Sequence to fold (194 residues):
Amino acid sequence: MDTPPLTILLVDDQSMFLDGIESLLARLPEVQVVAKATNGLDALAKVTLHKPDLVLMDINMPHMDGIEASKHIRKANPATRVIALSMYGHREFVLELLDSGVGGYLLKTAGKDELLTAIRTVAQGDQYVAQELRTLANKAVKLILHDRTTAEIAAELFLSTTTVETHRRNIMHKLDVRNTAGLVKYAMERGWGA
Fold:
């Protein structure tokens, strides 16, 4: 029995980007673009009308940005999963976005294969974070394990010390450890320190 295609709403204030993604997705039988929107308010109206499985949405848009629109979409139609798109890493709020219920965070520089992986992952109910950002998070953990200070980690990864501290707190919270020693122990037991 054939599975119906995933319905997708594309949201971006740049028409050329919208047309490019629509053209790319049109070649894939597993997805169907049901509508396009150019801002968050328009996206919310089209989610209410079409009830798509997924929304691929830019973060930076006029009238209502992608972050605010994502929150409204989750309330309006909880079954619709959102993948946030951005030109930038925006490391400061990726975790906040994911914690707020967004299904994924993808950089606009991602290739077709990563886009499809993100769509499939989020459609299955899992979260997806851009490969580039996952690599950065792994580097940060390894630097913590190698006894680097917050300032040293920030300098090496070109981040602010506040961002590094936020990541450190979030990592420890998610792993349920109380301090850096607990984090090191947890990681060493799993062979992450290499």
